[in-house]
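The aim of this short unit is practical: by the end, you should be able to scan a pair of folded records and say something sensible about each. We start with the first protein, listed as its amino acid sequence and then its structure tokens.
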Amino acid sequence: MMNREYIPKSPLGIAIIYILLGSVWVLFSDSMIEQIFKDIKIITALSIAKGWFFILCTGWLLYRLIKQSQKTLMTQNIALEVLGEERLASEEELRQQLDELLSREEEIRRQNLVLVSLNETALGLMNRLNSNELLRDIVVSAAKLINTPHGYVCLIDEEQGVCRRLIGTGAYEGETGRLDKLTDGLVGEVYRIGEIKMVDDYSTWEKRFTDPYFDNMHCTVQVPFKSEGKVFGTLGLSFAEPERKFTVSELDLLTRFAELASIALDNANLFTTYKNELIERRQTQKALQISQANYRAIFDAASDGIIVHDAATGEIIDSNQKVEELYGCSREEMISRGLDRLGNQQLPYSGDDALEWTRRAAVGKSQLFEWMIQRKNGESIWVEINLKNAEIAGRQCILSVIRDIRRRKRREIELHKIQSNNQALINAIPDNMFLIRCDGIIMDCKINCPHLYYLCSDEIIGESVFQVFQPNLAEQTMNAIVEAITRGKLQIYEFQMTKEQNQYYFEARIVPSGDEEVLAIVRDVTDRRQIEEKLAYLSHHDAMTGLYNRAYFEEEMRRMGAIRNVAAGIIICDLDGLKLVNDTLGHSMGDEVLKAVADVLKKAFRPKDLIARIGGDEFAILLPSNSRSAFKIACSRIHKLIEEYNGNRPIVPLSLSIGFAVTKETPTDMNALYKEADNYMYREKLQRHQSNKHTIVQALMSALEVRDFIAGGHGERMKELIVSLANAAGLPKQRREDLRLFAQYHDLGKVGISDEILFKPCPLTTEEFTIMKQHSEIGYRIAQATPDLEPISEWILKHHERWDGTGYPLGIEGDEIPVECRILSIVDSYDAMTNDRPQRKAMSHEAAIAELRKCAGSQFDPHLVELFIQLLD
């Protein structure tokens, strides 16, 4: 049976052995048998056995040949699969980046549309003063915002305990006028809790109404209208499609819309009340003017208090029933009062003021003012007093018409609060606003960006747009004003301005506000424009290197290939050893190497040449030329720049595999041209593969020597001590020589640890120590990549294992740890304790010996510790 160690490893060796054995067997076997044996039967039997033996040997050799070929093919298939997976990963990463960019762009566009729609809706609602029109606009606008035809509005009557459905659209259009109890249905839920309420499937909700048409509604929501924290109505919206649901953003939008609608409804109600009161007052005044002869009947029936004063003295002659109610005094008590006792003496006017008004009224000057009167019980109430001169029974008198305006005062306070809220809302909008007449005169404004205009904000009102804006912008604004008033439609345009060498972009919206004026809203969209430009840049460029990306490169290839009679050439560059750098020094260092390659390529070509990063470590240059000599010069230029870069001794040197192809005929098949250049590049990469990896490893070893913070004799001391201890432990000479190499490069993996951790002057944190422990695995991968260090790679991986099994990275214990690692652990610890480190000062020899004995059996091999102490003694 042949020893397995002497079985040839290659198909050529197997074939040579087969030929030699077969030739010897054929030439000499018969003569040897005839010389040894004389019996013809034995010779015949041996000849037959010889044939079968030759067949067995041939079969065995053929089996080895097939087995070796299968192993070679399997190795090649694995390499091809790894290359394919790397390319697929790169393509997936680019696809994810593009999807993220598209998603962010869509989110920005959707938010802008929502804000614009909400702003336009708010302006439309605030201009509605008719309640019915306002309610219909609320339903239609809300349905449009959420994109559903089904909506309605309910107003609540607390006295009767019902809610009345006033306006309906879609499926609710036929339910106008419907009355429901406040204790029933979804409206009742919202009235009780005072918050928005949503039901995912109304047809299955246990509290739903049993009307058949409700079964067609699925997801529905009720949003409350509030005034002073109290629910006075609701807005209902529904989806008939089972798959439609209200999103969180839609619910938030409806909540904000309901707040605006509540303000608009309060505004319309206050306007209606004030209008009714104004009509009522005018009717009363007209009634007093119709007939003075019947003044007593009107006098007592008037809804306002009336006091008759003598025009000369101011004394009270008469008063009506309403005055008695207002003051809480009888007619006789009122007549006994003087002017000083008719009002509150502190607020807001005194009796002298009242006497002066009476004198003015006596000479025919009507007086209208508000006053605070004092009732008999001491209560003060606000009234409106109208003083008018009149002749009654031939006597000059002053009629004081007193109207209780307590309710109106409350309404005015509420209206002022609403106006303050509206003003606060306008002030919160970060846009500039202008109220402009059709002739270009600015009536009012709110300025947030004063650098847009020629005049200060307090000088703008009353000026023309030509005095406020720059000439081209003023002319554009006037054209938009004319279009908005003439057509009655919103006008939108954008413009840009330069201020202190900075470019600003703005969007202007001109909307009609009456027949003769417009509201202009100017918004700063500089941030949005910059984001759009950045997204456009990222869609064509690689975010890391700033070069063009693969998508843009392929688009340019297709464009150039479609043009007839155009010369073209492609250079393909592949960065050698990127995976080794990423695995050992981390992806941040790999990114720096990629950026360095990008800088080299930018220097090697003109700014207008198309340079792209088309893969993780692949770059391509597309040039409009078919001169092979020009492409060879370009490749030489790249190599020269790489040599200059590597001459500065970077941590990781650059190595590029380069291939190119140029146009041979037209029209150009750009895909075939790219494939040809890629094939040339790949052949060069295969020829340089091992040498490139060796160069990178040598650079990492040099970096270790530069960055090693325990230089200053540490390596030499380690070599001497470790060899002495190995000799005492009985290790053979060859292993002692490997130990010298092990002593020098056991911390090779520290080139992959940041300087902040390596040189930190205080103890490491838990997270930092976790990172520091990775240097064993990093050093192992580096050593595996170079033949010089491959024999000690396993030692580098395990040199921080502990005798009790609590070490890292494998957690092995005792004799499972290679003896070389156990020797290095003792020597390295002793040298570290007796020399200064960034985190602490050196110990004495005696203290270090005591620490070694303390840790023997836990951290160190106890037998080797004793040998080492004997050596030191």
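Turning to the second protein, read its sequence before its tokens, just as you did above.
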Amino acid sequence: MPCQIHTHHEGRIRRFPHGAVRRAVLEYAINLCAWQRTALATRHRTDESYVQRRPFALRGPDGVASLRTRVEELVAGLLEDYPAEAGEFADQMAAILPIVADRQQEIDTLKEQCRRLYVIEHGTSGTEPPDDGDFRIVPTEDAAEVHVRSRAQDQVSAHRPEQTDLDSDDYLTAVARCLDSARERGRALSEDEVLAVHLAYTLASDGERVPLPVRPWSSPGFRDTQSYMSITDPGEGHLLGTTRRSENLRGVIVHIEHLERGNTQDREAVEPYRIPAPQSISRVRLHTGTQAPVSSYVGRPMFEGNVADSLLKTVHTVSAACSALFMDGLTECKLAMERMTATEAIDFMRAIAGNVRRNRHTQTLSAAFNLNTPIVDDRPATKRSHGGRPRTISDRFQVGLLGIELVAEAGFDKVTWDGTADTYPSRCVIEQLTFEQAVTLVHRAHEAGLLTYFSAGFRFHHLADVTYTGTDGVGVGGAQILRYMDQQTGHHGPFKEENIATILQIRDEAAASVLGQGAALLARLDQMFFEKSITAGQNQARESLYPALAQRDEARVAALLPTMRHARVIPDSAIEPPVLGSAHRLIAAGHASLAATAYTPLEFSRLLVRLERAVRQHDAEHAAELLSAARAQVDESDADFSSEQLPSAA
């Protein structure tokens, strides 16, 4: 019989049938195999001695038989690689699996097996005080009742207090809040919370989505730290590492991407970065919640024959993949611009932007350009200036500059410069450019209103220099910095969560230095230049700061920093669309702004009134239209962008 709900500390409930409970326990066993491999590798292997003979295995069906087989394969792999050390774990799993897989077992027996797995993970008896945790799971004859405790219930569905049963949205929200609370308090999940999380996985596998707000990229220069470290993993490492601690998510993008390419080095044969498993994406999003943006790599488009003939199918296929990821609440999808000419890339990006389902003001489309891959620039203007012929751009810096132009023209939001080649590990991308070139790429992209990102080959000693460029994102992952790798096969092993702290410490120290402060300030001023919210004094500082930073002239940068310390900074909200932050800044600058130069005082006052109304109403769409019109008005007026032409600051 169902248990009675004790309203003094029990809230609403969600019921899960036998099949879902059995799947959840098996998913927990799969996670424990990954946890065990990480623990054994950390204790018994080094980067040089790590062995991973088996490549990444694709996930099979979600049925009980398939999940059990997956656990058995993972245990067999552990025994093969760690025959002496993994024996006890294998024996424990061998005792638990037949019971979980037996469809005749009652739910209370399945819950007992979950308790046994919990003991394997935590090395405790698993018994806890009755009031511990945000969930209490009560087995009944026909279901597992997940009772949400009052403190977790306060977070969900206060608008339907009369409803006893939790719907999927409310249940997933409660689980995400529980994970966030445990992370903030630095405590391990209770036994019942662990089962509740894995039951949430079954909902996500069945197509339910985490109904939390998207955490967007904020504007350059107006976030808590300028250069976010893009902590990269196919998914498992994020679940067992990145998202376990609040400090791991500070100034971080949780990026999901399949990095392993084995022994194959030819980029044309095997793309070095590939789309991750959709199951992993939904789970990482659940665990991250709203504490950090989550992004995913999608990959280069796959054309059948020439681009023109297959554009429709390719655009619709890629758009469907991106739309599904955005529906899971991701902040960004990244596409590689390869196997296309410049005009084809523009057409492709425009079609993707028009077909993907997303919130354009909080969810970002990113275009990745490989600096080692030449681009044929066949745009009409290029042909006209070169005797009717296209140009092949192969110089790395010029490829980077062309990428900015193509992304801005096509309407994507972010430009990525990637440095992979037909070798692995990769040579770091910022070693393939001069420092001045790297700063210039970021500076030019920010002036055009684009987010920026460098990827490929980063190790600890590169992180300070890339922070000094002022880039928005830095792709860190792979065997160089966050994973074990078999030196013979190229297959990746466990995630090194402990290295996240080192990555962020290096970034923070660099950001606090003179060059780091100068990079963040230049990013802020370039963003304001794009917004047309910049004033005369600010633009004068911007024009002096860029060459000083590009030349690593610490004395000149240090001299410029105090001139801007009095300036009022209006940061972006963590959750609101960044365009509203841009609107705030233009309103604050008022008639001293660059935008004001293109209007009569009365016309500009009317624009500000409309913009203020849009901000009050949180109308990102209208604010974006007004800001775009103001930028266009400045361009059409042929205003000279030098400081002398700007009005004096009020």
